[in-house]
Amino acid sequence: MLTEVLLPLKLRTVDTVDAAQWQELIELDPFAHALHEPGVTRILADALPGARARWLEAVDDEGRLLAALPLIVRGRYGLLHVVSGASGLYGGPVALPGQGEACDLVAQAFLRHGGLRTVRRELVWAPVDPPQGSWPGLRRLQTSVLGLPADVDFDHWYEQSLRPARRKERRRLHRHGYRTHAAEGAQFLAAFHEIYTERSLGWGSEPLPRESLESLLDSGPAWRGFVAHDADDALVGAHICIDLGNELFAWLGTARRVEPGSIATLLIEEELRWCHEHGRCRLNLGTSAGLAGVSDFKQGISATDDPRWILRWQRGRGHC
């Protein structure tokens, strides 16, 4: 553990955390969510080759935890990538209310963590409002969402929210016997991981191990799966989502290509239905920067932009 004294606060970098203090921090921070849980950071670090979990913590002179930042530090060829919000997830600070100064210290530590060996730093923040403290380089990140009116007939509302092409596609999928439902536990990964790995390698991205996805789904009630089956009951696709409190975040998912259309249309419908039944105001579909096909699909289901926040720095390019 490295401790830097900045009276009356102390800033430290740790590789293990005090579970009770972190639980208090998460419970008292109105912006905190399931992705701040230390166990999630540990699972993701264990899943990524060359990665390790670290936490930046600001404490008072009595040792009380005031603000903190979960990190995944990944080494490649002696160079470091420091990320809060790895693998397309959200990160950022968690803090007691009114602790802007403590957040400033955490931000400063993040911006110099790893020193000259660090070639990339990235922080992705889920709430609409920016985090406490001063985070130089923080900028808006375009994110697609589907807002959900509180008092609607869900099936009628979803049908009407689709553009005509997607509406016809939805009807074709239903006629061919495709159906979706919320998954119970992580059992669906046995069939899904093969589809996910095949598609990830085709995209040139690094699939997460099945065991890591199982651990995330088993880590708490905020994690849930939504699955799609064909008329023969074979799994054809799935999404893994995280309940962030006021919204459901559709994090990871894919499906086999089928002739009637995109399985994502039905999976998103099931996720929105869950939001409707559990009082969540929107479904967060993430960013689609540089992915024209994904962007076109989101437009077809009437998704709108709802900017969030990102801090991205690369050596030689600065904030970008």
Question: Could you characterize what this model shows?
Answer:
- The structure is a single chain.
- The protein has 320 residues and is of the alpha+beta class.
- The chain folds into two domains: 2-136, Aminopeptidase; 144-308, Gcn5-related N-acetyltransferase (GNAT) (Aminopeptidase).
- Helix content is 32%, strand content 31%.
- The chain has nine helices and 17 strands.
- The longest helix has 16 residues, at 263-278.
CATH architecture of the largest domain: 3-Layer(aba) Sandwich
Helix percentage: 25-40%
Tally of alpha and pi helices: 9
User: Measured on Cα atoms, how large is the radius of gyration?
Assistant: 21 Å
Which blocks of ≥5 consecutive residues have pLDDT under 50? 3-7
Number of domains: 2
- Strand content range: 25-35%
CATH homologous superfamily assignment of the largest domain: Gcn5-related N-acetyltransferase (GNAT)
Number-wise, the strands total 17
The averaged pLDDT comes out at 92
Q: What is the CATH topology of the largest domain?
A: Aminopeptidase
Query: Roughly how many Å apart are the termini?
Result: 31 Å
Please give the largest β-sheet: 10 strands, mixed
The CATH class of the largest domain: Alpha Beta
Q: What series of H and E elements makes up the topology?
A: EEHHEEEEHEEEHHEHHEEEHEHEEE
Helix/sheet category: alpha+beta
| Basic shape | globular
